[in-house]
Amino acid sequence: MNAVNPAPHRTRQQQQVDELCVAVIRSLSGEADVTTQAGRLRKGQKILPTHAAHLQTDHQRDDFRSFRGAADSIALGLQYTNPVIHQKYCPILPVERLIFELLEQLRVETMVPDTMPGMRKNLHHRFEAWSHDFYLAGLTESAAGILLYTVFQICWSRLTGQPVLEKTEGIIESTRAAIAPLLGIDLLGMRRHRDDQAAFALHARAISDIVGEMIRSDSEESDDAKKANGKEEQGKNALRLLLNFDNDETDVITVAASGRSKVLDDAAHGYAIFTTAYDTQVEASSLVRKELLKEYRDRIDQRIAALSINIPRLLRQLRALLAFPQRDNWSFGEEEGYIDGRRLAQLISSPSERRLFRQEQFKPNANCVVCFLIDCSGSMKAHSERLTVMIDVMVRALEQVGVASEVLGFTTGAWNGGRSHRDWLRVKSPASPGRLNELMHMVYKDADTPWRRARADITALLKADLYREGIDGEAVEWACSRIRQRNEERRILVVISDGSPMDSATNLANDDFYLGNHLKEVVGRQALPGQLEICGLGVGLDLSPYYKRSLAIDLQQPINNALLAEVAQLIGGRQRR
Amino acid sequence: MVSVRTLFGIDSDLKVPAFRERGAHVPDIDDAYRFNADVTLAILAGFAWNRRVMVQGLHGTGKSTHIEQVAARLNWPCIRVNLDGHISRLDLVGKDTIVLRDGKQITEFQEGIVPWALQRSMALIFDEYDAGRPDVMFVIQRILERDGKFTLLDQNRVIHAHPHFRLFATSNTIGLGNLNGLYHGTQALNHAQIDRWNIVASLNYLEPDEEVAIVQARVPAYADEKGTRLVAAMVAVADLTRKGFAVGDLSCLMSPRTVITWAENCQIFSDTALAFRLSFLNKCEEAERAIVAEYFQRCFDDELIESHLHQIKNTM
User: Fold this and answer.
1) Interface predicted TM-score (ipTM) over 0.85
2) At CA B156, angle to CA B151 and CA B160, rounded to 5?
3) Closest alpha carbon to B189 in B140, B143, B130
4) Does the pLDDT at position A268 exceed 80?
5) Beta strands B199-202 and B53-56: pairing type?
6) How far off is chain A from B312, nearest CA to CA, in Å?
């Protein structure tokens, strides 16, 4: 292995910045369900709209203080902007909307409490940095750009009571003189009604309408005259980017495809298997060379070390979710309870001593086993490293809480059916043969092996050529039968997958949703209340058609605390407190 | 009878009974103490109309002190019993002990704190009520009822409560046990117990102004204008840690007591950041310090060395 390359280091910092900012937003606004995923803010499941232009931050370009400023501003927006009122007054036309959104955000930015001078400075820094970028990007080159820029500067200056940006004061001078009389009354009104969102919105709306109208008439007039000017065009294009609002609201995780399978519905004996002759169950580590495993392990250790994960918090959370007080040992020397025979002699020698009893002691104890069943189909190969990191951290954390854990995987022995498929061809391809591939079930770590001894074996997950196709239903059945044999009271199976069951040979010989429907049927049958809990962890895919309890995660970005916390919640099956 | 308005500065025409003499058990008056109007009224109701009052709130909010200070101003004798896990039933009720009388050893029943207080004009405060062991709680259950008589089983005696006996309790949780992992050793209370408390007052989040006033009263050096600004910023940091705790980002929070400690330490070290580190930050988990540093930056416009900004400078 060569030294750690700089790229992940950089993303780790970005991730830390994101986490810090979102934590501050949560505490400032008191909204517990604000999270960040892939650099996007979410409130609950929905994306948190940050339409004001200066809130768009970029890790490549902006410094940490800008992120702070944007976070503070968003937190203030959460506190002081009523989305219903905002929606009511918000204009539809893009230019007007750009101005209106920004003005509303500037309004809430004036609500900084007096006790937070640092916050005021962050906000100031962010607006200044953004204005500077606006200017440097050449946006002020076009007539519309300079007009917008001037309006923003004047409004900001009016609302905050700060002078306009010194560097660009000269550029906006003439525009400012031209539009100031037009906006004067509304500027005053905005300043006066800072505390009243609805009254403020009327003035903000008036300003955005005036400016929007000006820009439109201006561009109509001069369209032909200035077409030749390249710089102008460039500025306009950049401006168009600013006006791009709604693209972020369509970001929804896809739901796993599912439908009815006619073949399975019509089959007399349900799910069929052509042959089990080639099915295997192996220790995954036996498929990888010892030296390679060691190398894998080193790599994973380095990745985990670079992540700065808050293990104590994860432990606390898992303990709260999985452990319950249980009788554990006795507490001796009590003043009442059951008589402790060994202390009777003491009663005779010193009768005033009354601590001769013992009592039952209750301690939090996790009587629980968690089994991770990983879909080792080809498409999962891309996620193998982050997945291994996540599994490794979870296994270790669970072990510290006293929960036994198993790591299993499933794939097929060959592509496109292998020997099983060839046998089927040999007997002249009877119709509806059922499953037509060699199953390969792999054990990475069984529940009785502690992490310390399995630490190298788990990393066999990195071995890319083991990833082939996936037959989920039978794998779930197999995993269930394994954990059913455990004595633990609570048994949880976590199926990690990035797609619906997929085996090309089986799908061709039967129909499209044959395996998917079998999986549904297995999950429904196995997850009876009080016996087994099955949950689905979808990698970039919503697995809710298959599993009632499911969570979609994004493994494109590094593992972080929030993600692990969500996975812990999924395993524990309870909502965030 | 004394007027609440003159004694506590609360806008109310209420008159409450008070004793003329200050007995040995009456707590000392702390002139710097700031009363919270709602909680004070709740406690006064306890004293005046013999209600059972439980004051509930996070640690360091001054729950017990609050009751004590009300008692001090009413000249009402008052004792505090800490209901930690080691207080046993026998401690409360009483037990046979061997005593020397006329040179001979004889066994004699010695009353526990409950029968003793019950027969006097005394305000009994159970601190850490939710940390008490379940068996102990049932001893208290009987005296919780206003006319409850207390039976000493091994003495065949029934004790009637003195008409000026009062009972109070303070707890960190409302009998729900240790839900968020902050209060280890607390128990979930029997609902029959909770039901018998007539008034539950909550002393959780003080208004920032009030908290500033409390800190200034404790640390008089910060009573001037500059000090007010400093203390207000401290209280703002404390408030953020509380919110951070509530949303699950932090595992510890700053109590008013910590703010006072911080203010005191500021005087010792004459360095706000250093005092902050020593009084609170070092109690936080390593991974959470960067978040607290962000809070600090917001309120003080200053960077702690734990801040992310410093971290990136060091790695670059």
Assistant:
1) no
2) 40
3) B130
4) no
5) parallel
6) 8
In degrees, rounded to 5, the angle at the alpha carbon of residue A445 between the alpha carbons of residues A443 and A446 is 85
The pLDDT tens digits for A523-575 are: 888 887 777 889 999 888 888 888 888 888 888 878 888 889 889 988 887 54
A20/B290 CB distance under 8 A: yes
Rg (CA), chain B: 23
**What is the 3-class SS of A441-473, one letter each residue?**
EEEEECCCCCHHHHHHHHHHHHCHHHCECECHH
Pair A172, A164: CB distance under 8 Å: yes
Q: How far apart are CA A439 and CA A418, in angstroms?
A: 10
Find the CB nearest A26 among B249, B285, B302: B249
Helices (H) and strands (E) in chain B, counts: 13, 11
CB A469 within 8 A of CB A412: yes
- Residues in a beta bridge with B56: B171, B202
Please report the beta strands in B165-241, taking only residues with DSSP state E, as ranges in sequence order.
Answer: 166-171, 199-202
Q: Which among A118, A313, A577 has the least Cβ separation from residue B298?
A: A118
Tokens of A463: 């071995």
What radius of gyration, in Å, describes the C-alpha atoms of chain A? 31
**Least Cα separation, residue A29 to chain B (angstroms):** 9
| Distance separating alpha carbons of residues A106 and A157, to the nearest angstrom | 10
Inter-chain residue contact B308 with A336, CB threshold 8 Å: no
Token pair 């959460």 in the structure block, residue: A78
The answer to whether residues B193 and B141 touch, using CB atoms and an 8 Å cutoff, is yes
- pLDDT bin (cut points 50, 70, 90) of residue A396 is very high
Q: What is the pTM of this model?
A: 0.65
Q: Which residues of A touch B (CB under 8 A)?
A: 9, 13, 16-17, 20, 23-24, 26-28, 30-32, 64-65, 68, 72, 113-119, 121-122, 308-310, 312-313, 316, 320, 335-336, 351-352, 354, 561, 576-577
Q: d(Cα B204, Cα B194) in Å, to the nearest integer?
A: 19
Joined tokens for residue A479: 């995993």
Collapsing DSSP states into helix, strand and coil, what is residue B230? Answer: helix
Mean pLDDT over each residue of chain A, to the nearest integer:
82
Query: Which residue reads 């002190």 in tokens?
Result: B65
Give A525→chain B minimum CA distance, Å.
34
The vertex-A509 CA angle with A508 and A514, nearest 5°, equals 80
pLDDT of residue A228: 45
What distance in Å separates the CA atoms of residue A410 and residue A376, rounded to the nearest whole number?
6
A358, B133, B188 from B185: Cα distances, Å: 19, 10, 10
Q: How many CA atoms lie within 13 A of B311 on its CB side?
A: 19
Q: Which residue has the tokens 């729950």?
A: B63
Q: What is the pLDDT of residue A237?
A: 58
Task: For residue A259, give the H/E element and its range.
Answer: none
- pLDDT for residue A9: 47
Q: pLDDT at residue A233 above 60?
A: no
**Average pLDDT of the residues in A492-512:** 85
